[in-house]
Design goal:
It is a single chain. The protein is mostly helical. It folds into two domains: 3-67, no CATH class; 72-195, no CATH class. 50% of the residues lie in helices and 4% in strands. The protein is built from ten helices and two strands, in the order αββααααααααα. The protein has a two-stranded antiparallel ribbon. The protein is globular and about 55 Å long. The two termini are 29 Å apart.
Length: 204
């Protein structure tokens, strides 16, 4: 199965306290695993046919009687967003842009940035933010549409918690980009480390 998977199996996640959402209430310590491991190690056709790896988390929640689409989850993501725009300051590092130029073989325009950067920023920075699958980004974008203008940036509508998460995410992407020698290697790392999937196509 590979060293990385075996390491995850040997080091389960530790949960403590009361845990709702299952058939019964549990107390004390419970060992668990990242749900993506199920696809990595399980060859059961019935499960693979019912759920791709990207959807396996939803399947596990459903089996546990927990609905991630409920309003309480949306409220939790709202902690990352604010209605009024913060004062503008640069959040995306020039170092990240330099790495994208290198990895994607893009030519620096005289003004602005390549259109590809928009999609890279959304797909690699915003959508995985707080593991929200794009929900935080959608909330911030909606807040911008109501309370901002064309000059406003989406990150200006993130709360203090959201900004910390954004900076952490940017740091992860810079790290991945720095150790990548090619676009293929970079996107492989993004798929595995950020999305937990086997492939990622910028054109999708």
């Amino acid at each position: 199965m590979g060293a990385e998977i075996l390491e995850k199996i040997d080091n389960p996640l530790i949960f403590k306290g009361d845990h709702a959402g299952a058939a019964a209430q549990f107390q004390g310590q419970i060992n668990g695993y990242e749900v993506g491991l199920l696809i990595d190690i399980c060859q059961a056709r019935i499960i693979l046919g019912a759920s791709a790896k990207a959807g396996i988390q939803g399947l596990v929640y459903a089996l546990a009687g927990y609905d991630r689409t409920k309003e309480d989850i949306i409220e939790a993501y709202k902690l990352y967003v604010r209605e009024e725009a913060r004062e503008y300051e640069k959040e995306l590092s020039p170092e990240l842009y330099e790495q994208w130029y290198r990895l994607y073989g893009l030519v620096k325009p005289e003004r602005g940035r390549p259109w590809e950067f928009k999609y890279l920023t959304i797909d690699h920075i915003y959508k995985p933010l707080a593991r929200s699958q794009g929900k935080v980004f959608d909330l911030a974008k909606a807040s911008k549409q109501v309370n901002g203008d064309k000059s406003s940036k989406v990150h200006m509508f993130l709360s203090e918690i959201g900004v910390k998460a954004l900076r952490t995410q940017i740091g992860k992407i810079i790290g991945i980009a720095t150790v990548s020698d090619s676009r293929a290697e970079y996107e492989k790392y993004i798929a595995e480390k950020i999305y937990g999937q086997q492939s990622l196509d910028l054109r999708e």
